[in-house]
Amino acid sequence: MKLIANYISISRMVIAITLFLVKPLSIEFFTIYFICGISDIFDGYIARKTNTTSKLGDNIDSVADLIMLVVLMIVLYPIMSLTVQIILWIFIIGVIRVVSMMVVFVKYKTFEMLHTYGNKITGLVLFTLPLSLAFLQSEVIMYTICIFASISAIEELVIHLSSNELQINKKSIFLK
């Protein structure tokens, strides 16, 4: 029972990979996609409610999120018209995230990502990406996502660089 949240996160990794087997933006795609989204909400909720949160569980959740993001990028790339500017922007965001992870590793000898409001909002905006493609131009969606992702990535890096201790539950640079 105490590992149920971890099993949910691990199942999200496997389920996310099944998105390669269905047509993007089809009923099957959205069904699988929503199952992944629901599992992302429930794993942390269950861990907190059952008092079984752990560093391992937090890391499994982060890896599951990363797998989901990579799968989505691969699956949706062919149907989106990404400009060179947006691709470069995404690359820069990725570099900032990697630098942030390196700072954490060097300073604290661990792997962690923060649970800031910015990261949560970015995750929510990213989650709306496939739904938004039915209503908005992909360029508008990507600029919006990149703005939120840039702010959250820079905020996380600033928190890591300015902190003397690892604060994984720090909500924002503007809050104590």
Describe the structure.
- Helix 1 runs antiparallel to helix 2 and helix 1 (4-17) packs parallel to helix 3 (55-76).
- The chain has helices at residues 4-17, 27-49, 55-76, 84-108, 117-127, 129-132, 138-162.
- It is globular, with a radius of gyration of 17 Å.
- The chain is mostly helical and 176 residues long.
Explain briefly what this protein structure is.
With 176 residues, the protein is an all-alpha fold. The chain has 7 helices and no strands. It folds into 2 domains: 61 residues, no CATH class; 97 residues, no CATH class.
The low-confidence runs, each spanning 5 or more residues with pLDDT under 50, are none
Q: What's the gyration radius in Å?
A: 17 Å
Mean pLDDT: 91
The helix content is over 70%
For the terminal residues, how far apart are their CA atoms? 34 Å
Following the backbone from N to C, one meets helices and strands in this order, namely HHHHHHH
Into how many domains do the coordinates divide? Answer: 2
Helix/strand structural class = mainly alpha
Tell me the number of helical segments per DSSP (H or I, 4 or more residues long).
7
Topology:
Layout: H1 4-17, H2 27-49, H3 55-76, H4 84-108, H5 117-127, H6 129-132, H7 138-162
Summarize this structure as a short list of keywords or feature phrases:
7 helices; 176 residues
